[in-house]
Amino acid sequence: MTARGAPFAPSGIAYIDARLVDKGQPAGARQTTPITLAASNQPLATDTSTVWALVFALQFLVVAEVAAVWAFRTVGPQKTWIVFAPVLILACIFVCDQLVRLLPNLL
Predict the structure, then answer these.
(1) pTM for the complete prediction?
(2) What's the CA gap between 52 and 71, in Å, rounded?
(3) What is the pLDDT of residues 41-52, one digit of tens each?
(4) How many CB atoms lie within 10 A of CB 76?
(5) Strand, helix or coil for residue 3
C-alpha cells in the first residue's frame, strides 16, 4: 500500500496487488493482524510519542539563536559566524528530524 494525493498531504491510500511468478517459501504463522497492529502503524497514521523531543529541539534552537545574537553584538560577526553556524545548522537538523516524524507514515 502507498499514499495517494498531493505531496506531503495525502488524501487516501492506494492498494497494489501482485502476482507471484515463482514458487515462494511456505507460509508461516501470521505475526500481525489489523487488530494487533499498533495505532501508530496504521495507514496514514502519525507517531506522536516523540513530541517531547520536538519541544527540546525547539528550545535548543531558540537558545542557540539567542546566544548567537548576543555573541554577534559583543564579539563581532566573524567569530560569531565561525562558532554558531555549525551549532545553528545542527539545531535546525534536530528540529526538522522531529517534524518529519510527525508526518503520515506512507509518505
Answers:
(1) 0.65
(2) 29
(3) 777 888 888 899
(4) 10
(5) strand
Residues in contact with 61: Cβ distance below 8 Å, sequence separation at least 6, in sequence order: 88, 91, 92, 94, 95
> Where on the phi/psi map is residue 103: left (φ > 0), alpha (ψ -120 to 50), or beta?
beta
CA angle 35, 38, 41 (to 5 degrees): 110
In angstroms, rounded to a whole number, what is the distance separating the alpha carbons of residues 87 and 65? 9
pLDDT tens digits, one per residue of 66-89: 999 999 999 999 999 999 999 999
| 22 grid coordinates | 515463482
Reduced to 3 states (helix: H, G, I; strand: E, B; else coil), residue 85 is helix
Query: For residue 89, which amino acid is it?
Result: I
Q: The C-alpha cell of 15 is what?
A: 492498494
Query: What number is the average pLDDT over the span 2-18?
Result: 81
